[in-house]
Amino acid sequence: MSSSNNRPISPHLQIYRLPLTAVLSIGFRAAGAILAGGLVLLIWLLVAAASGPDYYAQVHSLAASWFGQLVLFGLTFILYYHLCNGVRHLYWDAGYGFEPELVVKSVWVVLAVSAGLTVLTWLVAFIA
């Protein structure tokens, strides 16, 4: 192969579209890493609560801001997504659900249930 040939050797992400199942698989791993960061935020909130009312008020005002609420909403979705996708993987570990049409349907079920549980959690949190 000559060095003047600029064509790619194999498909790359600019021309190759990943299947939805691959995107969810990557997302499952990323969700685990993001949840670890969410634990750092939870620990920060607990340390602030233990440090006294002044510091807790500062951290709470950040968490109660629109940006803090957006982060918490995202973390809620990611938590439910990781949970639902983990259940799907357990189902696969038992040897079920490998038919191509079931795999695609399970992708949409995971996303729908995650979104539904997130909205339900936030509705209950604001009603109470």
Concise account of the structure shown:
By secondary structure, the protein is an all-alpha fold.
How would you describe the overall organization of this protein?
With 128 residues, the chain is an all-alpha fold. The protein has one domain (20-127): 3 helical TM bundles of succinate and fumarate reductases. It has helices at 20-51, 53-64, 66-93, 100-127. The longest helix is centred in the N-terminal third of the chain and has 32 residues, at 20-51.
CATH class: Mainly Alpha
Total domain units:
1
Shape annotation: extended
Radius of gyration: 21 Å
Low-confidence runs of at least 5 consecutive residues: none
Described by strand count, sense and barrel closure, the largest sheet is: none
How far apart the termini lie comes to 68 Å
Strand content: under 5%
Oligomeric state as shown: single chain
| Order of H and E elements | HHHH
Mean pLDDT: 91
Under the CATH scheme, which architecture would be assigned?
Up-down Bundle
The percent of residues in helical segments reads over 70%
How many H/I helices? Answer: 4
Q: Report the structural category.
A: mainly alpha
* CATH fold title: 3 helical TM bundles of succinate and fumarate reductases
SS elements, strand count? 0
In the CATH hierarchy, what is the superfamily? Fumarate reductase/succinate dehydrogenase, transmembrane subunit
